[in-house]
Hints:
This protein is of the alpha+beta class. It has a single domain (29-192), classed as Pnp Oxidase, Chain A (Roll), CATH 2.30.110. 16% of the residues lie in helices and 32% in strands. It has a 7-stranded antiparallel beta sheet with strand order 3-2-6-9-10-5-4. Strand 9 (136-148) and strand 10 (153-165) form a beta hairpin. 26% of the residues are buried. The model has no long low-confidence stretch (mean pLDDT 95).
Amino acid sequence: MTQHCFTTVSAAGMDTATAYRLICGVVVPRPVAWITTVSRDGRVNAAPFSSYNYVAHSPPMVAVNIGTRLGDLKDTARNIRETGWFCVNVATEALMETMHLSGADYPPEVGEPEALGIDLLPGHATPVPRIAVSPVHLECRLDQAVTLGRGLNTLYIGEVLAFHLSDTVYDGRHVDSVRLRPIARLGGPFYAALGEIFHRPALQRPPGERSSER
């Protein structure tokens, strides 16, 4: 068994840059939410965020943490606050480069889908368009926004109003995560794809599922 030699780093009074570097380096891999929003004047925004996960299943809810940029709200955060709507699009290996480029610091008057030639589909449950090449879309309504820490971060919790699932990854009951090929974020400038997949029998029944269901 490996014997570790530890470096202990106190978080008391830690500067923002160090805290960000450490937390992003150890909380890995992180799923990427490729979020589309619409501004009050109708401009569509698309940007990736990796401080993201699901937080409830009844009703289904997801949460994304969006920090400020030099004290100002990012376009995605501003649009969510002002309209109350957003859509999470799943980024896959095939979409990684376009997804990554959409995270550049575009001015507010420039929409990433238009700048990068990203085709869109209309929303069904919300006014927010979906990214056409993404195989999974989660249309969301803002449930609450929670300010965290020293006020530099806000957790946006959204109720999922509709799932849009491509036939290439959905069989009518289950999503095939292997076929989905989602991208994950690591620390620094690094991303990851699915590697070796492990199977273990479920030890507890999923919420709401009867014993005859699988």
